[in-house]
Amino acid sequence: MSDGPGTGERKQRWIPHTYAILLGIMVLAALMSYIIPAGEFERIEQDGQTIVVQGSYQQIEQHPVGPFALFKAIPKGMSAASQIVFYIFLVGGAFGIIRATGAIEAGIGKIVHRLENKEKLLIPVTMFVFSVLGATIGMSEESIIFVPIGIAVARALGFDAVTGTAMVAMGAAAGFAGGMLNPFTVGIAQSIAELKVFSGIVFRSCVYVIILGFGIWYVMRYADKVKKDPAKGVMFDIEEKLKQEDSRKAADEFQQFSWRHAMVFLFLAAGLSVNVYGVFKWDWFLTELTASFLIIGFASGLVGKLGINGTFDAFIDGMKVIAFGAIIVGFARAILIIMEEGYIIDTVINTLAGLIGSLPSTLNAVGMYFVQVIINFFIPSGSGQAATTMPIMTPLADLLGMERQVAVLAYQYGDAITNSIIPTSASLMGYLAVAGIPYERWVKFVWKLIAGWLIIALIALVAAVVLGIS
Q1: Could you tell me the pLDDT band of residue 212, with boundaries at 50, 70 and 90?
Q2: CA–CA separation, 162 and 347 (whole Å)
Q3: 352 contacts 402 by C-beta, under 8 angstroms
């Protein structure tokens, strides 16, 4: 192969580690506390929300943050974000149990195999299934394990590795962008913005359908072109060198779908339904949602025949997988702690309000959206970006007279859509490595799809402002 994972890793060495970027931002924030004028807004409690009083900003005495205070901000950030950190850990552990039962692999394997001779249904059905997982459990890195079976079936039907990868990864990405019930992005962002968790679900669902529909059309169009003329595929020369027999073996590695797997899916569906009902009817929040996910996970472990010890082993493994995204929330909150202790956060908010506020009201959200897109390159973790930006964007939305729900939408789309093209995305680099697709070949395939999604999200934000989505 002309370009493999090793080469890709060498190309990515220039990109700093996400934690290194966050620490760098912390150092920058501390330095800025010596330079940026300290100031603060007056805040009041209104309808259960802490509201910034417009026009109340005033400068105060400088409060620079020293080196020791900078590192104290990390444990302070962990403590301040503890509810969210442990929510991510425990929910990640619960999903670790579900994954360990093999139900998701077996279920998807069964669906894909049944569609092997139904080419026209393969791509839309596969992308829909993965989009549901992306929208409900935040599937991202988890999609990596399904890429080999997607490629195997795609090649068997006359498509290429890009088609097989895209129908798995871009399906999950479409659902992740929709995020209607994603506890790791929309759930966290809304909790920081003091909104009811998973509120605005109808609007998000409508946008999700459009994003998914465009994604399915795009992938099917490419697949049809490759089947008619393989030379038009972005991987043609590499595909010619591969032996399909090796790829097809991957499809046989998954378990057969059993009644135990069916029970796990039943528990998951029932649990998610209870969560939605609880949020809207019983005012459930992170604590209740965490407890519900734990019940789903433990019940799945027992019916999935993992046993007591196996269930808790899978629970710990699930928390290990999610540790990167959980701890990053504490680091991100540390940035906020430094800016608060230096009394520069309100100065930043006031400045951003002036810049974005100079735009027409319907374009304020667009300005916020592009800020989130840029930040996502440096902080590709959805939960980390929510913890970093939403404490700033929430009061900014208040100052601009914008609904907080719109600020969450700007974060959501700015975080999710470019994950499928930026080289700092762990999930992207993971499934490209498994698929053996060079990064530049993937960009050649996907850039128009990402551009289309960005435009759809931009239109959706303008619509959200006009419709007053709250």
Answers
A1: very high
A2: 47
A3: no
Per the structure block, which two tokens stand in for 169? Answer: 């990864």
Other C-beta atoms lying within 10 Å of the C-beta of residue 31: 15
Tokens of 304: 């999935």
Burial of 262 (0-12, 13-18, 19+ CB in 10 A): middle
Contact 185, 179 (CB under 8 A): yes
Q: What is the pLDDT of residues 344-358, one digit of tens each?
A: 878 887 787 777 877
Instruction: Select the more confidently predicted residue: 162 or 150.
Output: 162
Location of structure tokens 């399904």: 146
Alpha-carbon gap, residue 195 to 189, rounded angstroms: 9
Taking a C-beta distance cutoff of 8 angstroms, is the pair 129, 218 a contact? no
HEC string for the chain? CCCCHHHHHHHHHHCCCHHHHHHHHHHHHHHHHHHCCCEECCEEEECCEEEECCCCCEECCCCCCCHHHHHHHHHHHHHHCHHHHHHHHHHHHHHHHHHHCCHHHHHHHHHHHHCCCCHHHHHHHHHHHHHHHHHHCCCCHHHHHHHHHHHHHHHHCCCCHHHHHHHHHHHHHHHHHHCCCCCCCHHHHHHHCCCCCCCCHHHHHHHHHHHHHHHHHHHHHHHHHHHHCHHHCCCHHHHCCCCHHHHHHHHHHCCCCCHHHHHHHHHHHHHHHHHHHHHHHCCCCHHHHHHHHHHHHHHHHHHCCCHHHHHHHHHHHHHHHHHHHHHHHHHHHHHHHHHHHCCCHHHHHHHHHHHHHCCCHHHHHHHHHHHHHHHHHHCCCHHHHHHHHHHHHHHHHHHCCCCHHHHHHHHHHHHHHHHHCCCCCHHHHHHHHHHCCCHHHHHHHHHHHHHHHHHHHHHHHHHHHHHCCC
Place of tokens 């789903």: 296
Q: What share of the chain is helix, strand, coil (3-state, %, to 5)?
A: 75, 5, 20
* Count of all residues that appear for the chain in the document: 470
Residue 234, φ and ψ in degrees, nearest 5 = -70, -10
84-95 tens-digit pLDDT: 788 778 888 888
Distance (Å, rounded) from C-alpha 288 to C-alpha 119? 43
Per the CB < 8 A criterion, the answer to whether 284 and 278 are in contact is: yes
> Tokens in use for 120?
């026209």
* β-strand partners of 59: 39
In angstroms, rounded to a whole number, what is the distance separating the alpha carbons of residues 309 and 444?
Answer: 47
Predicted model pTM: 0.69
Give CA–CA dist 303/106, Å, rounded: 15
